Structure prediction request, 161 residues.
Amino acid sequence: MSNTYSFAKIASGAAVAALSISVILAGSASARPLSAQTRANLETAMHGEAYAHLKYQAYADKAEASGKPELAKLFREAADVEGNEHFDREQAMLGLAGTNDANLRDAMAGEHYENTKMYLDFARQADRDGDHDTAAMFRQIAADEGDHYAQYKAALDKLAE
Prediction:
């Protein structure tokens, strides 16, 4: 029995258990609002799951490129569980997605911060440290985030019409 097969079997069983638990918890979640600490823990968990999802996809690509298709499959299966099961259950419990208007405003706030503050601060720090290629990358990403902000703003304006 390969590790991949074992992981797939475990993931399948976990998915069934997760569905059962989420049905049970969905009823209790509507009974009272989540505590501030539980909400913070969900946010932290979601960041970890999203990062693991993307990291494992990168690991899978590397394994595939180095001629290790079974290892690539293992990483892709784990990435799928992290992003499409764990993250999804956590975001549902948190109530992450709101109205289209609220979602656009939230996205705009995040993109604006990344465009005007976060990535520019990162670029300045990288330049101070002599990491000029990384600084240039941060500035380019900041510009992309500004484009995203403008696209979200245009979509929000269109919703208001």
Confidence is low (pLDDT under 50) at residues 1-29. The two ends are 59 Å apart (CA to CA). The longest helix spans residues 36-65.
